[in-house]
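Good morning C.,

I know you're traveling, so I'll keep this short. The sequence:
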Amino acid sequence: MRDAPVTLAAIIGAHGVAGDVRLKLFGDGPESLKLYKSFDIPGGTLTLKSIRPGPNGAVARFAEVKDRTAAEGLRGATLTVPRSALPPLAEGEYYHVDLIGLLCVSSEGEALGSIVAVENFGAGDIIEIERSDKKRFMVPIKAVQLGEGQAVIDSLFVV
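The tokens, ready to paste straight into the viewer:
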């Protein structure tokens, strides 16, 4: 398993004058971020003091951010943690980060390319596969069997 950084949120602006920041969340909500004491950002680390639901995501306070000017300076920064810091998964569950880069083969053994994205448009996860010629196609996760180091795509869904 790779220990790549996993983005959990992005700072989208300041909130108030005391240094709070507004966050766009990429996970299960503000409560899920309480599992982590600190987050890596480009050029440093932020220590979480508090977090609460807010407009379009959450509002957080970090020990290192003392005022609105400092909070505004963080706009656009992503909050990441190492993959190893994420909670363990139950059988059949996966993190999107674990799928990105997986090699794909059809159920008939044809090499298809690799997974470049995982999307969800409301009806379940869809994986995007890029072939060696850079062309891409999408398949529903239900058409995928995840194995050790590869994904097997049901041939009925191969374009």
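Safe travels,
E.
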